[in-house]
Design a protein that fits this description.
Shape: globular
Number of helices: 3
Strand order of the largest sheet: 1-2-3-4-5-6-7-8-9
Oligomer: single chain
Number of strands: 9
Radius of gyration: 19 Å
Largest sheet: 9 strands, antiparallel
Helix content: 25-40%
Length: about 140
């Protein structure tokens, strides 16, 4: 019984270590991610990159945080100077600018079915994958 417990503990530690975040170099990011950073964040460099199972989290030297899928497609971007609008759905950006012209999009999150934009005025706007407005809330 004691041996079984030891084996289980060792197995759990090994499995958790295998799935833990690990620091990676900027060169080991998928090419799609490297291209996106070069194109939309010119002059910025990767300060820290981390791989977790099938995702990457990247911090740039200006404080921007980007989460990428395993293929290098962005899933979430936090940029307090403003997320580059060219990366976002044009209809969603148009709605945000029309409704809140003085606000900046500081965070964007997307998946296959929805888009969420967080603005500098603390509003959160929700859209479907096509950029059709679904709703909003104030982030207090």
């Amino acid at each position: 019984m004691k041996k079984l417990m030891i084996v289980l503990v060792v197995l759990m530690v090994t499995v958790s270590a295998a799935f833990a975040d690990r620091v990676v170099s900027a060169d080991s990011l998928p090419q799609t991610a490297k291209d996106l950073i070069a194109q939309y964040f010119p002059g910025k460099s990767v300060m820290y990159a981390e791989a977790d199972f099938n995702e990457y989290e990247v911090n740039l030297n200006d404080g921007t945080e980007i989460q990428f899928s395993g293929k290098g497609e962005w899933e979430e971007i936090k940029c307090y100077t403003g997320v580059p609008e060219a990366l976002l759905n044009a209809a969603a950006v148009s709605y945000a600018k029309q409704q809140y012209p003085d606000a900046v999009i500081i965070q964007a999150e997307k998946d296959w079915r929805s888009i969420e934009l967080k603005l500098s005025n603390r509003m959160e706007l929700y859209f479907d994958a096509n950029g059709n407005f679904l709703g909003m809330k104030y982030d207090d």
